[in-house]
Amino acid sequence: MTDDLSLTTKRLLLRPITTADIPAYEKHFVDYEVIRHLARHVPWPYPDDGVKDWVENHILKLQGNDRWFWGLFLNQDIGELIGGIELWRPGNPENRGFWLGRAHWGHGYMTEATNAVTDFAFNQLNFEKLTFSNATGNARSAKIKQKCGARLLYKEPFAFVDPAYTEREVWELLKPV
Ligand SMILES: CC(C)(COP(=O)(O)OP(=O)(O)OC[C@H]1O[C@@H](n2cnc3c(N)ncnc32)[C@H](O)[C@@H]1OP(=O)(O)O)[C@@H](O)C(=O)NCCC(=O)NCCS
After folding, report:
1. Is 126 a residue whose pLDDT tops 50?
2. pTM, two decimal places
């Protein structure tokens, strides 16, 4: 584990994950209410070994190689992963993805976590700007972008797991000068 990536916030620990986190990842991620907001390349129904495959062959293999993944843990229970944030470059066009287990929505955790990762991206990883995207209509995710001061660049047709979503919003946040 690369401990130099670990970040702490008032209520959260963000740290690289290990294979020991796979059961909690499955518990919180494999939920249509979480996955339906993600890009269509994410499979649904979600395969039984999907999280294990993603963690072993994507997250752990690429960690630090222009891709960084943090598991989210409550300070009061650092044993159980409840969500994740990933950064990557170059963007396509976005540089970031995130998700949180439904049981933990609505407490400001992702706002807290993204603020810490944004600081790290600008100050430690030397990003000059971050590009974000979300389904048009994913109000929770859009609110997180609005609150950090990101600027809506454009909207375009895009496919998500939930076919009711047909468009995405693309946002930009510049490194403060
Ligand atoms: C998006 C997600 C990470 C948000 O996590 P969270 O910890 O609940 O987010 P926060 O509480 O930090 O912020 C959500 C904001 O949206 C607001 N919000 C919640 N429901 C809303 C709604 N229906 N309409 C508008 N705003 C809403 C909240 O009030 C909050 O804003 P506030 O802090 O000003 O009150 C979580 O809902 C999730 O994992 N969703 C499924 C996966 C996903 O959408 N990932 C992102 C793909 S782009």
Report:
1. yes
2. 0.97
Q: Which atom of ligand 1 is nearest to the CA of 138?
A: 44
Q: Rg of the chain's alpha carbons, rounded to an integer? A: 15
CA distance 134 to 169: 5
- 3-state secondary structure (DSSP) of residue 23: helix
Asked if residue 62 lies in contact with residue 40, where contact means CB atoms within 8 angstroms, the answer is: no
Distance from the alpha carbon of residue 113 to the mean position of ligand 1, in angstroms: 12
Please give the structure tokens belonging to residue 10.
Answer: 């008032």
Residue whose Cα lies nearest atom 20 of ligand 1: it is 140
C-alpha dist (Å) from residue 18 to 1, 7, 15, 98? 7, 16, 10, 18
| Class of domain 3-127 as given by CATH | alpha beta
The answer to whether the CB of 85 falls within 8 A of the CB of 117 is yes
The two structure tokens encoding residue 31:
């939920």
pLDDT in tens, 163-172: 999 999 999 9
Q: Where are the domains of the chain?
A: 3-127
